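Q: My collaborator sent me two sequences in one message, no labels, and asked for predicted structures for both. Can we handle them in order? The first one she listed is below.
A: Yes, handling them in the order given. First sequence, followed by its structure tokens:
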Amino acid sequence: MSLAVGLLGGTFDPVHEGHLHAATCVRSALGLPRVALLPCAVPPHKPEGLVASDDDRLAMLRLAVADRHGLELCTWEVDRGGRHYTIDTLRALRRAHGWDPVFVVGMDALADLASWREPDRLLAEFDLVAVDRPGRTIEEAAARIAGLGATRVRAWDGSADVGRGGRVFHLGIPPRDVSASEIRRRCAAGEPLDDLVPPAVARYIRERKLYRLEAAR
């Protein structure tokens, strides 16, 4: 028997409250048993690579989800290393675990979906949930992917049997205006992280002296 499971991918360099807010809102609104945060090993769209090591990113993610009900960490891509594409990962997780993956994307990522690997097959085989991001609108994103098959974006109304694939749902949530690049900039400048990351993650960054050289990149 298959199980609909939310997956939120990203570099998580570092994980922050925006990620956790989106994952929590998706899990609650869609009634999913869990949403897994899926860190990538070598991001296809980020040739400059990662700042923190895989070990540090995983450690921060474990701290971030430790007290978040229904959120967990999926290390599938990091465990295997190398370059992975979303469609291949979702297919592999479906085969390995019997999941019906529900892939969570920000509005900015949805707008750029045509540049992904096999975007038409990704949209045909899996359900996507698009959450709001500052500076992007659902109308813009929907127009950008309109040519990818017969896919159309629809507002989430709670009535769909999520997980069977072929749809893009827009979940309207108040976006958190926080980014990993801003966090790294603050770390390099010696500024406090305030509520941008969970306290345990802030302590880890401070103790490990992460992102101190970000200003020089």
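Q: And the one she listed second?
A: Here it is, processed independently of the first:
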Amino acid sequence: MLYIFDWDGTLVRSLDHIVESIDYAAGRIGLPSRPQDLRRSVIGLGLEEALSGLYPEAGERERDLLLQYYKERYLELDRAEPTPPYEGVEETLDHLLGQGHQLAVATGKARLGLERVMNNLDLGRYFVATRCADEARSKPHPLMLQQLLAMTGYRAEDALMVGDTDFDLNMAKQAGVGAVGVTYGAHPVARLRACQPIRLIADIRELREPD
């Protein structure tokens, strides 16, 4: 089976840096702060789509500055305190590989951002393929998953999407891929359950299969 993982909020504990960076970027150009739960609600989308959703009133110049200041702040925060994987992530990935499965990533990050954090955390070695929002369409469009299936040769029925947002779960549904929601990430359980995933898990280690 091909296990396809979201990144932020599923594998890596980066949500606090994301919501802080959004608020910082908005403040730099005089846009109002959005409530934290609203900022969390757009995590998982491509960055441009997330910021546009939060600030539809922003003009083109303001949107460009939002992106610029967000990226600057996120890098600053991540250099000062690198975001770690959630507890149990590496042992779970090792276990799934040991069971003969292959692993992939479908993320709202841009390629440069994903490569940077993968290298910093030495997690890239686990994944046979990765796709980012700047290489496809933003979630919940199914293109990222369709591309990963084409790249790896798996059929949709032989793949499983694991993510913390309804964007992940709805993307999987549109691609004909089964989905598991993790309840420790960006979206509340009710939003995940409404997508009717195969199951919800509170710990990534629940993906482990019996030896």
